[in-house]
Amino acid sequence: MSAIDLSSYFGLTAMTLLTLNIMIGLVMSVKYNPVRGWPHLRINTFKIHNWTAYIALTIATIHPLIILFSSTAKFTFLDILYPVNAPKQPWINVLGALSLYSLVFVVLTSYFRRELGRKKWKTLHFTAYATAALFYVHGILTDPTLKDAPIDFFDGEKVYVELCMLLVIVAIGFRVRWQLGQPPPRVHRPKSAAARKS
Ligand code: HEM
């Protein structure tokens, strides 16, 4: 197995874990209860969501670093950090790098969510959707042999990434529908001095 093949497997594994992570995040955001509903089991969704994020971040960081061990790719460490002038597919690699940096942002802000406060953290957490868009497009458009070959959208690995993306898009649709069905948030108005006296 070449270094490029190994790097590609690391990329696919990170994408799989992040798909699972996002699906669980969506389940939590609609307050789904897995004890009352299917699969009627006590599942610690928060713990799974947390750990899939940490493991995916580790694997996604290793994924581009493996390319440094390829004798044919000729990537330098700078091409990994800032792929604008990378020897192959620079812009598709820029999407991958941006996706990794935004993943670091989502994980770091979540680590400090108590300090940030729920409202600010939650707003920042929506960055996760941009992260997902970046890694799905990067995964679909990259040539796995790093030879700038035309993309075969029906290749097994590409179909797998496309199906994961479709699953997340459909789940986001359900999440938006759930949100639209929620009552508007109650605005807290402090009582006026006159109302307090009476
Ligand atoms: C380890 C760090 C993380 C923690 C502690 C965390 C925590 C949470 C929590 C508590 C929720 C539920 C929010 C609610 O109930 O409204 C959530 C939702 C979500 N999380 Fe995370 N998360 C982490 C990392 C990630 C990562 C890396 C991604 C994907 C790149 C992600 C994607 C999502 C998504 C898509 C939602 C649903 C957001 C919504 O539409 O409301 N999370 N996360």
Would you mind describing this structure in some detail?
It is a single chain. The chain is mainly alpha-helical and 198 residues long. It has 9 helices and no strands. The longest helix is centred in the N-terminal third of the chain and has 27 residues. The radius of gyration is 21 Å and the shape is elongated. The site of protoporphyrin IX containing FE has 21 residues, from helix 1, helix 2, helix 4 and helix 7.
Terminal residue distance? 80 Å
Total of helices: 9
Number of strands: 0
Helix/strand/pairing class, anyone?
A: mainly alpha
Q: Characterize the quaternary organization of these chains.
A: single chain
- Shape estimate: elongated
Mean pLDDT: 93
Beta-strand fraction estimate: under 5%
Number of domains as seen in the coordinates: 1
SSE series: HHHHHHHHH
What molecules are bound to this protein? Answer: protoporphyrin IX containing FE
The stretches of 5 or more residues where confidence is low (pLDDT under 50) are none
Please outline the major beta sheet.
Answer: none
Q: Report Rg.
A: 21 Å
Q: Percentage of helical residues?
A: 55-70%
